[in-house]
Structure formats: C-alpha cells, structure tokens
User: What shape does this take?
Amino acid sequence: MFGTYFSHGTIRKMVVAFGSLFNNITVARKDNSGVEVERIKVPLSYANKEKFLRRIRQNPSNNENLQMTLPRMAFDFSQISYDPSRKRNTTLRKVIEEDTATRTKVKSMYMEVPYNFDFQLFIASRHMDDGLQIIEQILPYFTPEFTVTLKLEDNFAKKVDVPIVLTSTTSDHDYEGSFDDTRNLIWTLEFTMKANIYSPVKTGGVILEAGVMFTDKEVLDNPLITGGRPAGALSRTIIGSTGTATSVSGGSADDHDYTIRLDLHKDFDDDGDGIGDWITS
Assistant: This one.
C-alpha cells in the first residue's frame, strides 16, 4: 500500500504561505520632534529559536567589529498534529472529469485528512520601540485567526481557505549580564494553521450502463413456481448512462399474468404519464 510515489507539495506551500505573511514589515525611526527620518525593512529568515538567538548573541564572523543588524525576524515550522474535530467520512470520494471532450475518464480522490500545523515567529530587536512597532503590525489581523486562500492541489483543492490562528504571544528580555553586553528583546508568537493533507489522485473509467433485476416476492417465497425462468426474476432492464432503457429481457409469464419493467422512457409508458407501467403479457 505504501511506497507508491505521489506529492502535491502541500506542506511546502503552507510553509511558504506562512512566511510570506511577514516578509514586508518595516520599522520607522523618528527624531526627537517625532519626524520620521528612516524606515527599515525587517529581514525574515527560516530558523529555529536556538539558532536564531545564537546568531544574534555570537559573532557570525571572525571580525569582532561586526554585529548582526537588528531588528530581524525568523519563523519555524515546529509540529504536525491530527485534528479529529474536522474529520470527515474518509470513504467518500471527490470525482471530476479528466477529459471534457471524450468524457470517458474521471479523476477521483478520497476526502482530505485534517491536520494542524504549528508555527513560531521570532522577533528580535535592540530597542523596545522597534519590537512594539512590529508586534503592532501583526496582531490586528488575527482575531484570533487570519484566513488565507491557497492552491494546495491542482485538481481538487485549487482554492482552499486556510485559517491561521494566533495562539500565544510572549516576550523575553535579556536584563542579565555586564554593562558592555548588548540587550536583546525577543518576542515569540505561536500560530496554528488548520489545513488538510490530500491523498493521491486516481484515474478510472466512467460507468456507461447498469443492470437492474426485478423479482417476484411470491416466486421467491415458493421456489417451485419458477416456470422455466430464474427463480423470482420477472424482468431485467439495462439502463444506459443517458437514462434510457437500451434493452429489456426477462422470464416468461407462465405462472403469472404480468411482468414488470423499469422504464425511464415513454417507449414503455402505456398510459402516457411518463412513468413505467405494469405491462400485462
């Protein structure tokens, strides 16, 4: 069962979508009179918290005169967990036409599986005002969720609304150390993205006709009354994909004076009411 390759790139698309929410945040610097003198775009990278803090607190090169520029941000994809509250019937399938011209093939996929994807956003600043400006540009959009529309799969999930919930906001300020140490203000925002994972897409043919067998309850109850036909069988109707009866066959009426036919066409409608009738033999 496992081992058949398929990939929709769903998780990668969600990671990219989350990071793109915060890649255009800026910080303004003002003079004593309140006039803006500089605007800085806050850089964003993908890293876990430990690596992010290590790069800030340690010298990234052999040149001791260099320091990492702050403010800056980083985000991390931390956890995947199943969400039973959004579970749907997994035996159901979605079906679409593969070729609208011939209409002989269909694509199908089982229902999506709900998962929660946890993200963390880290904000580092040297000045309190810088960190507060960044936080203020993020929090108003999450109430507590912000919904993005993503294309997670090419056939069945071209436009999917995915809510991103802000679950917590914490701050960590470095007050310890000597007076020569640089103070770092760290903010951590935790998010949960409520999305789905999609199963492989399968291709199959279209059912063009179906057969329906009608039976006589009296014959079924008394197998001796068969009259040379299959026990209980009155008639068999083959119905095409357009809803028309293409052929009708059945047993004789040796023991009964009628047969029954399921007819969707007026060809077998004696009284003209558009409904298949009991036809006397």
Observations:
- The longest helix spans residues 10-20.
